[in-house]
UniProtKB/TrEMBL annotation, chain A:
InterPro entries, per the entry: Gclm (IPR032963), NAD(P)_OxRdtase_dom_sf (IPR036812), NADP_OxRdtase_dom (IPR023210)
SUPFAM superfamilies: NAD(P)-linked oxidoreductase
Molecular-function GO terms, alphabetical: enzyme regulator activity; glutamate-cysteine ligase catalytic subunit binding; oxidoreductase activity
Gene3D superfamilies according to UniProt: NADP-dependent oxidoreductase domain
Keywords: Glutathione biosynthesis, Oxidoreductase
Pathway it works in: Sulfur metabolism; glutathione biosynthesis; glutathione from L-cysteine and L-glutamate: step 1/2
Organism domain of life: Eukaryota
Name of the featured protein: GCS light chain
GO biological process, one term: glutathione biosynthetic process
Protein family (similarity comment): Belongs to the aldo/keto reductase family. Glutamate--cysteine ligase light chain subfamily.
Quaternary context: Heterodimer of a catalytic heavy chain and a regulatory light chain.
All residue ranges annotated as the NADP-dependent oxidoreductase domain in the record: 100-244
TrEMBL record, chain B:
Protein name: Glutamate--cysteine ligase
EC number annotated for this UniProt entry: 6.3.2.2
Keywords, comma-separated and alphabetical: ATP-binding, Glutathione biosynthesis, Ligase, Nucleotide-binding
Pathway: Sulfur metabolism; glutathione biosynthesis; glutathione from L-cysteine and L-glutamate: step 1/2
Keyword Nucleotide-binding among UniProt keywords: yes
Transmembrane segments: none
Gene source species: Coniochaeta hoffmannii
Family, similarity comment: Belongs to the glutamate--cysteine ligase type 3 family.
Catalytic activity, reaction form: L-cysteine + L-glutamate + ATP = gamma-L-glutamyl-L-cysteine + ADP + phosphate + H(+)
Keyword Transferase set for record: no
Length: 317, 688
């Protein structure tokens, strides 16, 4: 049987060093992995403390720091979804009303994500977006950027990157996914749509097949002064803004997720490691990741930033 | 500079009698604004920069170089420029603005203390839109070109912090006037060096009178190979008997090995780059005031540009202490030179000095950070507390209000007008600390503001824009990541001193907080308003304050430990414990930018600015101070004796003018043949 797992980071904006890019690492998923790890550790400690001391906070609060806080204490099962860690939605929301913010989300469809069923991506998009809307207590987001698997903007020079890009990704899948995103927009959940890592040729091909055009194309290039001219031209002509990003496309590989949730020294102990240990057993596949950023309009202050990730566990009978 | 109201300025003997009245009325005005504005919310981020210029008279074939004292004529020319005024720009103090709105208002020009100075600000404040940040440099260039267009062909607005030959014997200004006037009583500069508006000479005269002698601005001289030692400032005249203050030098005002200066103009005639921010509310304003404060000395060292005074190379790189001494109105009793008899207290710092208070309501502000020697006026504090102000802010203003008002206009003492802030501003604007916390104006039309004041002006507008934008981005990172830069105020004071040393940017060590990040917010924290009593886990115990900071170089502070370790110019000892690594201000700003939606071209421009600052901090590029020293040292006519002759100054100013002209044309700096310029500007803006 299949079980969904929802991972979350909480608000990482004041979470310290995990937001700082390491020297030389221009594209990295460390922000995601570091902040997941730190949120797991904090949740274990905090929920263990609450479990022991109740909500009055009396007592000396020695949480078990050996990672043996029971799974049922710091995670939560709701129907077929397991939240890692448990989310207390009472604490959701932004400080001011939604109109004061620009909220951007970036949805990563992962290489390992299911595409077999045509509606899988739509389901994932809706699930991811609804988590963000719930977390920020907002009715809609201003920009949804979609990152498709297998895309990059790599090459020794930017011309080459643009050429290579033309061969990447899966045009058919991408085009087939787009109407689902257009529906989100029509329903008023998303104001504008965007894409990531589309070079000039891929962008031109996509534009021919969509009703609602993306307003944004996020690219990662080594030297931001050298955007390939054909892309600049096309973007200008189509009114598409070229934005910078530093995310890696393969933001949550299967092995990384296993390590995050496994029994190892850096693992959260959610997954069993072999027959002997406790925890969930089965094959775990990351499906999607959504990053959200809420910026106070007119003030340029990031108030809330975080990630949710969705994975599917094919449980062993 | 504050408002230039006209009226009858009181001489010190009369002003002194009214000091208490002005303070009392000032406090009432402050409480009136406080009550009007304390709940003001949601002001947008707006910010503004102020660029100050020296106006010099220079031509290729004349070996002299002079400061121009035509400030009033230049401002009049600017005010009479109808195109400029109808475009929203002009000179507000000389001409009522028409209130004409304009798509992008033209710059505004202001008089300054020095009659050889000019200040220019953008026509309207900047917002936070990233594209707007890119308009700053162009606007600065526009300001410079407008200023130049209203000058004589041989006059130039330049952005050196000080005029290297101000106060030299002989002729250094155009026109030239005799020294030893009644207001300044300086043996080096004439009274006419100051803006003739009654406010300025009165300010200078009352500082001198209050102090009981002339100000003493002594800067250690740089000892070069052939500098006579001990060095006696050869320009000091011990035989003047015009004014009682002429005894000062006979009483030891000019010690050996120091360049001696004796007038306000030597300090207040310096140009700086100041940035003012509007906060969303008073709480955020107080937070920004505190958090930017420890950055002051760092940015001072990084922008160092002041190695020459009165024709001699100094052994310091920045202007700060000279301004501090140039307006130091403390009496011998206040200075601790005589027992307290007439004055109320000993005062450890000049009115122009690094901050003495932290004012935020932040729970991370520990009592140990506060200045243990803070002097406050208890009566004034009590009145502010009675008026409903909280302890910390009341302490701040009760500290500023230990000072006497220096310039009082008789007309303003007729009745108290609570719809004005003139008496409050009288004290507030003559407290020149490195940060200034500014309440809204009396009509409450703009928000609470914070002014960042320590930076030295840079030679090019590219550099000035880079530092302005950097500080703006730092404030956004501070607010987004809730950064904590607190160290004890006395350590900020020490850092301010450390920033003065020659090449402090390379060799200086500064106390800096090791961990800037807040403890992870407990999940029960939620957004404000959630207001749930649920505790999460026991509060992290706090260790000794001394464990919170350590000594770091500028490279490490700006670029991070890892970068500093790998860059050769200022090696940092490898540290086994990488947890002790400091992330660096630029990587933090980059983390902020990474989280924002920024278009490619904009990010590229912002990266250029950050790159300049990175290279200045690492030593790869030079500060203006280092470049000027190099220029002098390698000039064929420099005698290695610390003296910067008229000819060398002429060529230095000529180089600065040539750089400015190239910048205006936007055609790069190649082929100028200026010694060491490539180390100042590298490949930026067309390269050298």
């Amino acid at each position: 049987m299949t079980k969904s797992i929802i991972l979350s980071t909480g608000n990482i904006v004041s979470g310290g060093p995990s937001i700082i890019r390491k020297n030389g690492a221009s594209r990295s998923n460390r922000e995601l992995t570091d902040s997941l790890r730190s949120n797991f550790a904090a949740a274990k400690e905090e929920y263990a403390y609450l479990a022991v001391n109740g909500t009055n906070g009396n007592g000396n609060g020695h949480a078990d720091r050996n990672g043996s806080t029971p799974l049922s204490v710091w995670t939560e099962q709701q129907d077929s979804v397991l939240y890692v860690p448990r989310i207390n939605w009472d604490f959701a929301g932004l400080q001011e009303e939604p109109s004061q913010y620009d909220v951007t989300v970036k949805l990563f469809f992962l290489t390992t994500g299911s595409t077999s069923c045509p509606s899988a991506r739509e389901q994932h998009a809706r699930q991811a977006l609804s988590l963000v809307l719930k977390e920020l207590r907002i009715p809609k987001v201003d920009l949804l950027v979609v990152s498709f698997p297998g895309m990059s903007f790599d090459g020794d020079c930017e011309w080459e990157a643009d050429k290579q890009n033309a061969q990447q990704g899966e045009d058919e899948e991408e085009a087939a996914t787009w109407p689902a995103l257009e529906r989100l927009q029509r329903e008023g959940l998303v104001k504008n749509l965007g894409i990531a890592e589309f070079g000039s040729e891929k962008l031109a091909r996509l534009l021919k097949r969509v009703e609602v055009k993306p307003t944004v194309d996020q690219i990662n290039i080594k030297n931001c002064c050298n955007v390939p001219p054909p892309l600049v031209e096309l973007a200008k002509e189509q009114g598409i803004e070229l934005l910078v990003h530093n995310d890696s496309t393969d933001v949550l590989p299967k092995g990384t997720l296993r390590e995050l949730l496994g029994q190892g020294p850096n693992g959260a102990g959610v997954l069993a490691d072999g027959e002997a240990s406790s925890g969930l057993k089965g094959d775990l596949t990351p499906q999607w990741v959504i990053k959200y950023t809420a910026v106070v309009r007119d003030r340029g202050v990031i108030e809330n930033k975080g990630y949710f990730a969705g994975a599917e566990l094919e449980e062993e009978a | 500079m504050g408002l230039l109201a006209l009226g009858t300025a009181l001489e010190w003997a009369d002003a002194k009698k009214q000091a208490d009245l002005v303070r009392q009325w000032g406090i009432k005005q402050l409480l009136a604004i406080w009550n009007k504005a304390k709940h003001k919310e949601r002001d947008a981020l707006l910010w503004g920069d102020e660029v100050e210029y020296l106006v010099v008279v220079w031509s290729e074939d004349d070996q002299r170089v002079l400061v121009s004292l035509r400030q009033a004529d230049i401002l009049k020319a600017l005010a009479n420029d109808t195109e400029l005024t109808s475009g929203g720009g002009g000179v507000p103090d000389l001409q009522a603005t028409t209130g004409a709105s304009h798509a992008s208002p033209l710059p505004v020009f202001h008089p300054e203390f020095g009659r050889f100075m000019l200040e220019a600000t953008p026509g309207q404040p900047w917002g936070i839109e990233f594209k707007e940040l890119l308009a700053v440099e162009a606007d600065m260039k526009l300001r410079r070109s407008i200023a130049k267009n209203h000058m004589l062909a041989t006059e130039y607005p330049i952005t050196l912090t000080t005029f290297p030959r101000l106060g030299c014997p002989g002729v250094f200004s155009d026109p030239s006037y005799p020294v030893s006037g009644p207001k300044l009583r300086s043996q080096f500069v004439p009274d006419e060096i100051a803006n003739p508006h009654i406010r300025f000479p009165t300010l200078a005269a009352n500082i001198r009178s209050r102090r009981g002698r002339k100000v003493q601005v002594n800067v250690p001289v740089f000892r070069d190979e052939k500098t006579p030692w001990p060095w006696k400032d050869p320009t000091v005249n011990y035989d003047l008997h015009q004014w009682p203050e002429d005894d000062d030098v006979r009483n030891g005002a000019a010690p050996d090995n120091f360049i001696h200066m004796d007038a306000m103009a030597f300090g207040m005639g310096s140009c700086c780059l100041q940035i003012t921010f509007q906060a969303k509310n008073i709480t955020e304003g107080r937070q920004m005031y505190d958090q930017l404060s420890p950055l002051g000395p760092i940015l001072l060292a990084l922008t160092a540009a002041t190695p020459i005074y009165k024709g001699f190379l100094a052994d310091t790189d920045v202007r700060w202490n000279q301004i501090s001494r140039a307006v130091d109105d403390r009496t011998p009793e206040e200075l601790g030179e005589k027992p307290l008899e007439h004055d109320r207290w000993r005062i450890p710092k000049s009115r122009y000095a690094s901050n003495s208070t932290y004012i935020s309501t932040d729970h991370r502000l520990r009592p140990e950070y506060m200045d243990p020697n803070l002097i406050i006026d208890e009566d004034i504090k009590a009145k502010l507390l009675d008026g409903g102000m909280d302890e910390r802010l009341a302490t701040h203003f009760a500290h500023l209000f230990i000072r006497d008002p220096l310039v009082i206009f008789a007309e303003d003492l007729e009745e108290l007008d609570l719809n004005k802030t003139d008496h409050f501003e009288n004290i507030q604007s003559t407290n020149w600390q490195h940060m200034r916390f500014k309440p809204p104006p009396a009509d409450n039309s703009i928000g609470w503001r914070v002014e960042f004041r320590p930076m030295e002006i840079q030679i090019t507008d590219f550099e000035n824009a880079a530092f302005a934008v950097f500080i703006v981005l730092i404030t956004r990172a501070i607010l987004s990541f809730d950064l904590n830069f607190y160290i004890p105020i006395v350590k900020v004071d020490e850092n301010m001193e450390a920033a003065h040393a020659r090449d402090a940017v390379l060799d200086g060590k500064f106390h800096f907080r090791k961990n800037l990040f807040p403890a992870r917010a407990p999940r029960s924290a939620g957004p404000s308003g959630a207001n749930t009593p649920t505790p999460s886990r026991p509060a992290t115990p706090v260790g000794p304050v001394e464990d919170e900071y350590r000594l770091m170089g500028i490279n490490e502070i700006i670029n991070g430990t890892e970068y500093a370790r790998s860059s050769s110019s200022s090696p940092v000892k490898p540290d086994a414990d990488h947890d002790a690594d400091f992330p660096g201000l630029i990587p933090i700003v980059e983390a902020y930018l990474d989280s924002m939606n920024i278009d490619v071209a904009t990010r590229c421009e912002l990266a250029t600015y950050l790159d300049l600052i990175r290279r200045r901090a690492s030593g790869e590029l030079w500060t203006a101070a280092r470049w000027i020293r190099h220029f002098v040292a390698t000039h064929p006519r420099y005698g290695k004796d610390s003296a910067v002759s008229e000819l060398v100054t002429h060529d230095l100013v000529g180089a600065v003018i040539a750089i400015g002209e190239r910048e205006q044309k936007g055609c790069g700096f190649k082929g100028l043949g200026i010694n060491g310029l490539d180390k100042l500007l590298g490949e930026f803006r067309g390269g050298c």
